[in-house]
Amino acid sequence: MIRKLNPVIRGWVNFQKYNVSSQAFERFDFDVWRCLWQWCKRRHPKKSHKWIAEKYFKRIGTRSWTFSVKMPDSFELNLIYATDTNIVRWLKTKSEATPFDDRFTGYFEERDTERMFREIKGRKKLNALYKAQKGICPICGGAITVEEGYRIHEATGNDYKITRILVDAGCHRKLHYSKNVDEPALVRQGL
To answer: Within the chain, what is the greatest distance between any pair of CA atoms?
Structure first.
């Protein structure tokens, strides 16, 4: 039962976590608990409530009613809770920012990098860029680390094809605050 419920709960919660949904998550957890309690009572009609609670619900951390089952290999399988999920707010776009204005190129690149880091699909793309570049910044030749920060930079080639590269935060600032708008640092590097 837990193996069937966990993916459904996780999927619904991941879909709803962008909304202001803490009260909805609390209500959802209560409704799931109530349905499970009814299921347990239906399954064991001749057993007492105390017996049912001791068999199916365990105290884990601060929660005293976690639906849980002990697996044969001494592994405990627990039902996940919607309220354990962090609610993520959408990244608002600045009202004056437009992708057609070169002044906001850096802003949109930082915003896209942060959004990619939040999503699984985006993290896969970041990982692919990191592996393709072997963890090296193509501008300075240094290692790209989480501590120093990184950004995705979009460069337009001679064939007007947009390529994305992963650069460290310092090189990204240098690229966007250079005097020439045509990205001379990338042209020098042959990108």
So the answer is: 81
What letter would DSSP give residue 136? B
Write the DSSP string, 53-92: HHHHEEEETTEEEEEEEE-TTS-EEE---GGGSPP----P
Enter the tokens of residue 139: 């501008």
The token pair at 116 is 């990619």
**Model-wide pTM > 0.90:** no
Residue 37: what are its φ and ψ, rounded to 5°?
Answer: -65, -45
Between CA 165 and CA 189 the distance in angstroms is 12
- Per residue of the chain (191 residues), give pLDDT as tens: 888 999 999 998 888 887 777 888 999 999 999 999 999 999 999 999 999 999 999 888 888 888 988 888 778 888 999 888 877 776 677 788 887 887 787 788 778 777 777 777 778 888 888 888 888 888 888 888 877 778 888 777 777 777 888 888 888 878 776 644 444 444 434 44
Q: Where are the alpha helices (DSSP H) in the chain?
A: 2-16, 22-43, 49-56, 105-118, 120-132, 169-176, 184-189
